[in-house]
Design a protein that fits this description.
By secondary structure, this protein is α+β, with helices and mostly antiparallel strands. 51% of the residues lie in helices and 15% in strands. A hairpin with a 2-residue loop joins strand 4 and strand 5 (268-277).
């Protein structure tokens, strides 16, 4: 979104108001869509709708912008669902990776939803997901959500109840301490890249699940999730033995608010690995590996 040099005072005001709320809008839309590229497209549509109307006479610009953005995002979900139908292998959300200097993406600065939680949110209907994000993540009351999505408060309460029950049944209300997560991540990466089967058997939970999202563009990515420790160890060990796995470098960054590993091949991003831990924090219960290069375009190496 750019501003013309000869813009009018009304355009300047519209731009200032929009920019003041852009981080909030980005975070809201990203959590509804799970895709940075689609989020940017929705924000462009929101900007065009906003400037077409302008701030004049709008008592609450924030509420107005949120309503525009959320409804554009709900429309975009239809296109994303169609793409998912032909997607090769498991689909994971596009990871938001903090910069090497610690600078975080706007969505990470506003509200962090873990990659594992975003995977669960994919199983909700678009309206359930929007209501869950607005209510559970951003604290919007049901009455305001009703105005945003054009439903009655009673309908919103029902959507919120279904979404909350669905998420809580699949996602324990637990988040490991950052130090514990960092230690577990480093331990796993050492074992995985070193092909240490004994260490992998120790750190992986018996019922671990591994998701690898290559979008059909990485030979190492599986076509379906792998369940169980024995299968997961064989899969990870086979990766470590591949010729193209030699010379990989690991950087530890925050991904969607959690400590994770970003793997580079030369200067190019090769994979983002995010771990889900057991409540005790000593074993990996879920492993999310994004290798699809289209989802890593915003990841940069740079020396830490």
């Amino acid at each position: 979104m750019t501003q013309n040099a000869g813009s009018s005072p009304a355009t300047d005001e519209a731009t200032d108001v929009y920019l003041a709320h852009r981080e909030l809008l980005f975070s809201l839309v990203y959590n509804v869509l799970g895709s940075v590229a689609d989020t940017e497209d929705v924000l462009q549509e929101t900007w065009l709708s906003w400037t077409g109307r302008g701030p004049a006479g709008i008592a609450n610009p924030r509420a107005y912008l949120v309503r525009i953005a959320v409804n554009h995002a709900l429309q975009r979900r239809t296109a994303i669902s169609r793409r998912r139908e032909t997607y090769v292998g498991p689909w994971l959300p596009e990871p938001l990776v903090a910069d090497p200097d610690g600078t975080e993406d706007p969505a990470l600065r506003t509200e962090s939803v873990s990659l594992a939680m975003l995977v669960v949110l994919e199983s909700l209907t678009p309206l359930e997901r929007a209501v869950f994000v607005l209510n559970e993540v951003f604290g919007y009351p049901h009455t305001e959500i009703a105005e945003i999505i054009g439903r009655t408060p009673a309908a919103v309460r029902q959507l919120a109840h279904r979404a909350r029950a669905h998420v809580h049944a699949r996602r324990p209300l637990y988040r490991a301490h950052p130090r514990v997560r960092r230690e577990a991540t480093e331990r796993f990466v050492r074992a995985a890249l070193g092909g240490d089967i004994g260490e992998l058997m120790e750190i992986l939970a018996p019922d671990v699940t591994v998701w690898t999202d290559g979008g059909g563009k990485r030979r190492t990515a599986g076509l379906r999730p792998v369940h169980g420790r024995d299968k997961a160890v064989r899969l990870i060990a086979s990766y470590a033995g591949r010729r193209d796995a030699q010379g990989l470098e690991v950087r530890y960054r925050r991904v969607n608010g959690d400590d994770a590993a970003v793997v580079f091949q030369g200067d190019s991003p090769y994979a983002v690995m995010v771990m889900d831990l057991t409540p005790e924090g000593d074993r990996v219960s879920g492993l999310y590996i994004v290798t699809n290069p289209d989802k890593l375009t915003h990841v940069h190496k740079e020396e830490e």
